[in-house]
Specification:
With 524 residues, this protein is mainly beta. The chain has 5 helices and 36 strands. Mean pLDDT is 83; it is low at 1-49.
């Protein structure tokens, strides 16, 4: 859990359920499996005087109804400082309404899941003894999850975006994204963004027209360019845009403009093109990021701050053998091949980053076996490759990036690390991989069970004292240095033991991990 004020500071936050406001708790209970507080750095602005940035905290709430074939979770947010009472009330009311609707939706999903799985149970009974009997064992598992992210937080604007994922059978789930933009000072919901509808249509048309031929072929299949006004214009009328750090952003659901397999896409009208917008809503902090479509859709970005936009897009060329592809990032008249020596990349996700001092592009490249690497390019140096770091981008800030990756240590665990980035590359002081697996804050934490007794160490003041765990005891790995594991017991006690890794297998005093633990959740 982190709090950021100008420089990186860490603090511990008490668990709280206020993140969902005065919610309907008939079916929900707080799980506290995601909670953090963030403060954006306030920047000076000589032209417009705005107040301090709000601080906020996340909570996660699960649907409180145990049913084998359904899981639901909603994330909420609450303003935690005393300087924004109107905003706090407005956000709490929004989250309360979202939670109320979430509960109603969960009831419908459960009713549907029970009906479908009831039919499957009957079909299984009818098929008993036949070769198809076991085809009905798994059932159909429904899901309805709502994730929340803060797309902008400063003295002028507070924007939250709810990302809904639902699955009720079929080949894939459904994603819907809804954004809400508040005036940070008054708490009022900003609703007059329709005034920029025509300008947004012009921007979208420019995106599509400047995209490479490979993407236009996909567009032609759906007659997008030919019937632009009928297809695009009608599609975005019902979509609610929101203000983020770059401008007015509208998310387009999968399958509307590009094939469903290309996922959601985003169009942004930059603040420089939003005439008559109240100046207090224009960010005083120059930092912003914008995702570059992995599908090849072009974006128009002022990459060097000279006031002129350039075409930016990712080109993907499949190999003639059908195995592997090459990825080339086009920035104006520059073409940069991603990982020039490899044909193993399966997907690239570029993001343009405009910091106060410099411009960068970070490219998250995915390789087989869930391996991910982030490439850092210095746009101001001709898109020169500066550095690489292992992991996927979890959060981007001015000069800092959070990278997440899976770490193998008596199971596979997800770990996050904070890195600084500049024209010299990535840098971090964090030597420990800390896992999101602490049962005190994560309701989905996974424990591993001892097959035999284990000697470990625990802290006693400034010293470590020896202790023993018995067969049958359960521990929760929470961090590793690569040769020492930190864990938490079921009683909440923290302990440590040393280990060594030989040929991808971990040993404790010469004994294999498989002979010591049961239930290690390895992936891959």
């Amino acid at each position: 859990m982190k709090k950021y004020v100008s420089v990186l500071l860490a603090m511990t936050i008490a668990a709280s359920a206020i993140g969902c406001g005065n919610q309907d708790k008939e079916h929900t209970k707080p799980q506290h499996d995601k909670e953090e507080s963030v403060t954006e750095e306030q920047q000076d602005n000589d032209e417009v005087s705005i107040g301090a940035s709000p601080t906020y905290t996340f909570t996660s709430v699960k649907y409180d109804d145990d049913y084998k074939y359904f899981k639901g979770k909603i994330e909420c947010v609450s303003i935690t400082d005393e300087m924004h009472p109107e905003l706090q009330k407005a956000v709490d009311e929004l989250c309360a309404e979202q939670t109320k609707e979430f509960n109603k939706a969960c009831e419908k999903y459960i009713a549907s899941a029970k009906e479908v799985n009831g039919k499957l149970a009957k079909e299984k009974e009818e098929a008993r003894g036949s070769n198809s009997e076991f085809e009905y064992d798994n059932g159909i598992h429904y899901q309805y999850n709502i994730k929340l992210r803060v797309a902008r937080c400063d003295g002028g604007i507070f924007t939250v975006v709810f990302e809904e994922y639902s699955f009720d059978g079929g080949n894939h789930g459904k994603y819907v994204e809804r954004g809400y933009t508040f005036d940070s000072e008054t708490g009022e919901l900003i609703k007059d963004l329709d005034d920029y509808y025509d300008a947004m249509l012009d921007e979208i048309h420019e995106y599509l027209s400047n995209s490479p031929d490979t993407l236009k072929e996909k567009l032609k299949d759906q007659s997008i360019l030919k019937n632009f006004n009928n297809v695009v214009s009608d599609s975005i009328k019902s979509l609610g845009g929101y203000l983020d750090t770059r401008g007015l952003t509208i998310p387009i659901s999968a399958g509307v403009i590009l094939p469903y397999s290309d996922g959601r896409i985003y169009f942004t009208l930059p603040y420089s093109k939003m005439e008559d917008l109240d100046k207090k809503y224009i960010p005083s902090n120059e930092f912003y990021t914008t995702d570059i479509s992995p599908s090849g859709l072009a974006d128009m970005i002022d990459v060097d701050g000279d006031g002129n936009e350039e075409v930016v897009y990712l080109e993907t060329i499949e190999s003639e053998e059908g195995i592997g592809a090459t990825y080339t990032l086009h920035v104006g008249d520059k073409a940069v091949k991603i990982d020039d020596d490899s044909m193993e990349i399966v997907m690239c996700k570029p993001v343009f980053v405009h910091t106060v001092d410099r411009n960068y592009i970070l490219v998250q490249a995915s390789y087989p076996m869930d391996s991910e690497v982030v490439f850092l390019y210095d746009v101001d140096k001709g898109c020169k490759l500066v550095d690489t770091a292992e992991g996927s981008i979890d959060e981007l800030r001015d000069g800092f990036v959070t990278l997440g990756r899976h770490v193998d240590a008596f199971g596979t665990w997800y770990s996050k690390k904070e890195y600084s980035y500049n024209q010299k590359g990535f840098s971090t002081d964090e030597q420990v991989d800390r896992f999101e697996n602490n049962p005190s804050s994560d309701s989905d934490a996974k424990g591993i069970t001892l097959k035999k007794s284990l000697t470990y160490y625990k802290s006693d003041g400034d010293e470590r004292v020896e202790a023993t765990l018995s067969a049958g005891d359960v521990i929760y790995p929470v961090a590793t240095t690569g040769d020492e594991l930190e864990f938490v017991t079921q009683d909440g006690e923290t302990g440590y033991f040393q280990y060594e890794t030989i040929d991808f297998v971990r040993y404790i005093d010469g004994v294999s991990e498989e002979d010591i633990f049961d239930g290690m959740p390895y992936v891959g």
